[in-house]
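Technical annex, item 7. During the second reporting period the consortium partners agreed on a shared format for inverse folding records so that results from different sites could be compared directly. Each record opens with the tokenized structure and is followed by the designed sequence. A conforming record, contributed by the partner at site C, is shown below for reference.
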């Protein structure tokens, strides 16, 4: 807490006015950062867009977010798997994913998305793919251009389309 206070240029006691302990501060930071990330994924998305174009927008938003905010994304992954996150916080994090699950469900209802897979499996399949793409890009192992991004989305689409 001392390092956080020093970085924020405030007294350590001031932090305790807002957070009970280190774990509380970390949990609140995690939840806020998670919500900011999901908001970025949904930026410019409109339910009025065609399903496929809306999904592509979110997919590209996530890929770009993962690249441009790599440290934040990596922190979220590590923290989610840490002992600091309790069941209540995991439930809240799951609620933040709800808009993405709703979009997948909409695709199923339109007959555009595979119905033999549950929404979480579809979400995780796409998530894993663009995480790896972004990780390779950030590590200077794979370079993107518009054509490669489009082809990568096509691969994801082919994985989930009905």
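Designed sequence (site C submission):
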């Amino acid at each position: 807490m001392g390092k956080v206070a020093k970085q924020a240029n405030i007294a350590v006691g001031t932090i305790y006015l807002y957070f009970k302990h280190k774990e509380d501060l970390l949990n609140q930071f995690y939840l806020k950062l998670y919500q900011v990330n999901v908001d970025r994924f949904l930026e410019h998305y409109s339910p009025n867009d065609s399903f496929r174009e809306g999904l592509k927008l979110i997919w590209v938003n996530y890929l770009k977010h993962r690249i441009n905010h790599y440290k934040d994304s990596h922190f979220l992954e590590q923290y989610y798997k840490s002992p600091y996150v309790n069941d209540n916080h995991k439930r809240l994090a799951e609620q933040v994913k709800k808009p993405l699950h709703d979009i997948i469900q909409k695709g199923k209802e339109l007959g555009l998305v595979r119905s033999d897979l549950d929404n979480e499996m579809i979400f995780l399949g796409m998530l894993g793919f663009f995480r790896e793409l972004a990780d390779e890009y950030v590590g200077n192992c794979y370079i993107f251009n518009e054509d490669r991004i489009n082809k990568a989305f096509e691969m994801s689409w082919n994985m989930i389309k009905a």
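The longest helix spans residues 22-41. The chain has one domain: 21-160. All partners now use this format for quarterly exchanges.
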